[in-house]
Amino acid sequence: ATPMSVMVGVGKAAEYGVLIRQGDALQNAGKLDLVILDKTGTITEGHPAVTDLEACQGDESQLLALAAGLERHSEHPLAEAIVARADADRVVPANVSGFEASSGKGVSGQFEGATLRLGNRRWLEQQGVDLSPLAEAERRISANAGTPLFLARDQQVLGVLGVADAIKADSREAIQRLHDAGIRVMMVTGDVEATANAIASQVGIDDIRSEVLPEDKAGIVTDMSRQGFRVAMVGDGINDAPALAAADVGFAIGTGTDVAIESAAITLMRGSLHGVADAIEISRATVRNIH
Ligand code: ADP
Ligand code: MG
After folding, report:
1. What domains are defined for the chain?
2. What mean pLDDT do residues 261-285 have?
């Protein structure tokens, strides 16, 4: 395409809230044949809320106080949900010291001489915690597309919290548009398989990579590139930045983190996945006009 037609394309995209920050991104967008979507904040709104509280000893407010005591030190969207719930229920967060975040796993800290951990099944089981008493609650939470988070005091499980995030109203339709354009769509998430499957089926995705550690997201992008795909990555989080940079075209959600926006060639100002399909259509039209 000529510089003039690219300028026209970039202007057209801007009308759709699709901000093209790197010159070659518009021309590359039309060649994409695989779109990899992050889950939280990309397919979903990114403002999760606590939906379930189940304490082994029946003390839900103590469970929430301990969980909030840990999470008030964290900036993860899951943490915000738990702190907000404690606030709404007027539950005072426990005074946790020595906070540590384990990326893609959970959070830990010290309370009354013991170690508290809040995180996913795999991580707590690695610490030797038996979660079988909560299997039923876990199933219920993940089947409803929520994320189960287990709380343990040393090796003893205290309960489980369910945190769920609403799917953006137009995600399903936008993904259908990509499929109709002949593009493969994959979802990548750090969340567990059952939760990932529940979200994916609601938006029409059958290609899912779950329990992906933050540092492995970019590896999936480069793997698919090596297999010959022209890969788009769409994400909002700090965790997504290396994958956004590794993709042929990175799309950052406009309300996402600054790191994600700086790592991506394109910013979706409206936060909608329709912007990805818009960019691809405009790119294809721009290149077609020239030849
Ligand atoms: P995503 O790909 O959904 O953004 P992350 O890689 O940030 O996921 O996290 C993956 C999983 O690690 C979460 O689903 C959760 O189980 C656990 N986790 C991460 N951060 C926290 C936290 N602050 N509190 C509890 N669990 C967490
Ligand atoms: Mg995200």
Report:
1. 3-45+167-290 (3.40.50.1000), 49-164 (3.40.1110.10)
2. 97
Measured distance CA(155)–CA(272) in Å, rounded: 43
% pLDDT > 90, the chain? 92
- With the most atoms of ligand 1 within 8 angstroms of its CB, the residue from 50, 70, 78, 147 to mutate is 78
| pLDDT tens digits, 136-188 | 999 999 999 999 999 999 999 999 999 999 999 999 999 999 999 999 999 99
Residue 214 CA, closest ligand 1 atom number: 6
From the list 38, 236, 240, 278, the catalytic residue is: 38
For residue 118, the ligand 1 atom closest to its alpha carbon is 25
130 given a catalytic annotation: no
38-95 per-position pLDDT tens digit = 999 999 999 999 999 999 998 999 999 999 999 999 989 999 999 999 999 999 999 9
Q: Which of 100, 103, 116, 149 to mutate to test the pocket of ligand 1 (most atoms within 8 A of CB)?
A: 149
- Can you read off the two tokens belonging to residue 269? 């100002």
Q: What does each C-alpha distance from 277 to 29, 63, 256, 281 come to in angstroms?
A: 9, 44, 19, 6
DSSP 167: B
Cα of 237 from ligand 2 centre, angstroms = 5
Q: Is the dihedral of CA 108, 111, 115, 120 positive or negative?
A: negative
